[in-house]
Write a structure and sequence with these properties.
5-stranded parallel β-sheet; disordered C terminus; alpha/beta; 45% helix; Rossmann fold; 2 domains
Length: 168
Protein backbone atom coordinates (compact mmCIF):
# COMPACT_ATOMS: atom_id res chain seq x y z
CA UNK A 1 0.00 0.00 0.00
CA UNK A 2 1.64 3.27 -1.12
CA UNK A 3 -0.80 5.76 0.38
CA UNK A 4 0.78 8.17 2.85
CA UNK A 5 -1.20 9.57 5.76
CA UNK A 6 0.00 12.02 8.38
CA UNK A 7 1.22 10.16 11.47
CA UNK A 8 -1.45 11.88 13.57
CA UNK A 9 -4.21 10.51 11.33
CA UNK A 10 -2.87 6.98 11.54
CA UNK A 11 -2.55 7.23 15.33
CA UNK A 12 -6.04 8.75 15.67
CA UNK A 13 -7.48 5.97 13.54
CA UNK A 14 -5.72 3.36 15.67
CA UNK A 15 -6.90 4.98 18.91
CA UNK A 16 -10.44 5.05 17.55
CA UNK A 17 -10.22 1.33 16.71
CA UNK A 18 -8.84 0.62 20.18
CA UNK A 19 -11.78 2.51 21.75
CA UNK A 20 -14.26 0.53 19.65
CA UNK A 21 -12.69 -2.74 20.82
CA UNK A 22 -12.71 -1.59 24.44
CA UNK A 23 -16.39 -0.62 24.13
CA UNK A 24 -17.16 -4.03 22.61
CA UNK A 25 -15.45 -5.74 25.56
CA UNK A 26 -17.58 -3.75 27.99
CA UNK A 27 -20.72 -4.86 26.10
CA UNK A 28 -19.72 -8.50 26.58
CA UNK A 29 -18.17 -9.23 23.19
CA UNK A 30 -14.94 -11.25 23.18
CA UNK A 31 -11.88 -9.08 23.74
CA UNK A 32 -8.69 -9.43 21.76
CA UNK A 33 -5.62 -10.45 23.71
CA UNK A 34 -3.40 -7.81 22.10
CA UNK A 35 -4.98 -4.84 23.83
CA UNK A 36 -4.46 -4.85 27.60
CA UNK A 37 -0.82 -5.66 28.32
CA UNK A 38 0.88 -4.13 25.29
CA UNK A 39 -0.74 -0.75 25.73
CA UNK A 40 1.67 0.77 28.20
CA UNK A 41 4.94 -0.84 27.09
CA UNK A 42 7.46 1.63 25.69
CA UNK A 43 9.99 0.77 23.00
CA UNK A 44 13.02 2.77 21.88
CA UNK A 45 14.16 2.24 18.28
CA UNK A 46 17.76 3.23 17.51
CA UNK A 47 18.65 3.17 13.81
CA UNK A 48 20.28 5.61 11.41
CA UNK A 49 17.91 4.56 8.59
CA UNK A 50 15.01 7.04 8.79
CA UNK A 51 12.69 5.00 6.58
CA UNK A 52 13.19 1.79 8.55
CA UNK A 53 12.68 3.62 11.85
CA UNK A 54 9.37 4.98 10.59
CA UNK A 55 8.21 1.57 9.37
CA UNK A 56 9.13 -0.01 12.71
CA UNK A 57 7.43 2.81 14.62
CA UNK A 58 4.21 2.45 12.66
CA UNK A 59 4.25 -1.33 13.04
CA UNK A 60 4.83 -1.17 16.80
CA UNK A 61 2.24 1.58 17.32
CA UNK A 62 -0.22 -0.59 15.41
CA UNK A 63 0.50 -3.36 17.92
CA UNK A 64 -0.26 -0.95 20.76
CA UNK A 65 3.19 0.06 21.98
CA UNK A 66 4.44 3.55 22.75
CA UNK A 67 7.48 4.17 20.58
CA UNK A 68 10.41 6.59 20.79
CA UNK A 69 13.03 6.92 18.08
CA UNK A 70 16.67 7.89 17.93
CA UNK A 71 18.71 8.36 14.77
CA UNK A 72 21.99 7.36 16.44
CA UNK A 73 23.39 5.69 19.52
CA UNK A 74 24.31 8.87 21.37
CA UNK A 75 20.76 10.19 21.15
CA UNK A 76 19.39 6.75 22.00
CA UNK A 77 21.44 6.47 25.17
CA UNK A 78 20.36 9.95 26.26
CA UNK A 79 16.70 9.07 25.63
CA UNK A 80 17.06 5.82 27.57
CA UNK A 81 18.34 7.78 30.56
CA UNK A 82 15.49 10.28 30.37
CA UNK A 83 12.50 7.98 29.93
CA UNK A 84 11.14 4.67 31.13
CA UNK A 85 11.89 2.23 28.30
CA UNK A 86 10.75 -1.41 28.38
CA UNK A 87 12.63 -2.54 25.27
CA UNK A 88 15.40 -1.20 23.04
CA UNK A 89 15.55 -2.25 19.39
CA UNK A 90 18.83 -1.18 17.82
CA UNK A 91 20.72 -1.57 14.60
CA UNK A 92 24.32 -2.74 14.82
CA UNK A 93 26.10 -0.83 12.09
CA UNK A 94 25.65 2.92 12.59
CA UNK A 95 27.85 6.00 12.62
CA UNK A 96 28.77 7.83 15.86
CA UNK A 97 28.06 4.89 18.19
CA UNK A 98 27.45 1.41 16.85
CA UNK A 99 25.08 -1.19 18.26
CA UNK A 100 27.86 -3.05 20.08
CA UNK A 101 28.71 0.10 22.03
CA UNK A 102 25.03 0.73 22.70
CA UNK A 103 24.57 -2.75 24.17
CA UNK A 104 27.61 -2.36 26.43
CA UNK A 105 26.63 1.15 27.55
CA UNK A 106 23.01 0.14 28.21
CA UNK A 107 24.18 -2.86 30.25
CA UNK A 108 26.30 -0.52 32.41
CA UNK A 109 23.29 1.77 32.97
CA UNK A 110 20.78 -1.06 33.49
CA UNK A 111 21.91 -4.71 33.60
CA UNK A 112 18.29 -5.84 33.16
CA UNK A 113 17.61 -3.85 29.97
CA UNK A 114 15.85 -5.83 27.24
CA UNK A 115 17.52 -5.43 23.85
CA UNK A 116 16.72 -6.71 20.38
CA UNK A 117 19.48 -6.17 17.82
CA UNK A 118 18.87 -6.07 14.09
CA UNK A 119 21.34 -5.97 11.24
CA UNK A 120 21.51 -6.42 7.54
CA UNK A 121 25.26 -6.42 7.72
CA UNK A 122 25.96 -4.16 4.79
CA UNK A 123 29.73 -4.28 5.41
CA UNK A 124 29.84 -7.57 7.27
CA UNK A 125 27.67 -10.65 7.09
CA UNK A 126 24.86 -10.63 9.66
CA UNK A 127 25.35 -14.26 10.58
CA UNK A 128 28.88 -13.36 11.66
CA UNK A 129 28.10 -10.26 13.71
CA UNK A 130 24.68 -10.97 15.27
CA UNK A 131 26.06 -13.72 17.56
CA UNK A 132 28.51 -11.18 18.97
CA UNK A 133 25.56 -8.95 19.90
CA UNK A 134 24.00 -11.86 21.82
CA UNK A 135 27.28 -12.47 23.65
CA UNK A 136 27.29 -8.82 24.70
CA UNK A 137 23.76 -9.03 26.09
CA UNK A 138 21.15 -8.75 23.36
CA UNK A 139 18.15 -10.91 24.18
CA UNK A 140 17.29 -11.56 20.52
CA UNK A 141 18.63 -10.73 17.10
CA UNK A 142 16.79 -10.08 13.85
CA UNK A 143 18.44 -10.49 10.47
CA UNK A 144 17.33 -7.80 8.00
CA UNK A 145 15.11 -7.97 6.15
CA UNK A 146 12.61 -9.42 8.61
CA UNK A 147 8.84 -9.66 8.42
CA UNK A 148 6.20 -7.89 10.47
CA UNK A 149 5.35 -11.25 12.08
CA UNK A 150 8.98 -11.85 13.06
CA UNK A 151 9.06 -8.41 14.68
CA UNK A 152 5.73 -8.97 16.44
CA UNK A 153 6.77 -12.37 17.81
CA UNK A 154 10.18 -11.13 18.96
CA UNK A 155 8.78 -8.08 20.75
CA UNK A 156 5.93 -10.03 22.36
CA UNK A 157 8.33 -12.72 23.53
CA UNK A 158 10.83 -10.29 25.04
CA UNK A 159 8.14 -8.26 26.77
CA UNK A 160 6.60 -11.40 28.24
CA UNK A 161 3.33 -11.33 26.35
CA UNK A 162 3.69 -14.91 25.13
CA UNK A 163 5.27 -17.04 27.89
CA UNK A 164 4.81 -20.33 26.03
CA UNK A 165 6.47 -19.17 22.83
CA UNK A 166 9.92 -20.42 21.94
CA UNK A 167 12.22 -18.17 19.94
CA UNK A 168 15.69 -19.06 18.61
Amino acid sequence: MNREFPAEARDEEFLSLRQERADACLRGHPCTSTLPENRMKTILIIDDDDALRQILRLSLVQLGYAVHQASNGKIGLRMYGEQRIDLVITDLLMPEKDGFEIIMDLRKIDPTVKIIVMSGGARLRSEEILPIAKQLGAALTLNKPFSFDELRVAVSYILGNTPDLEVD
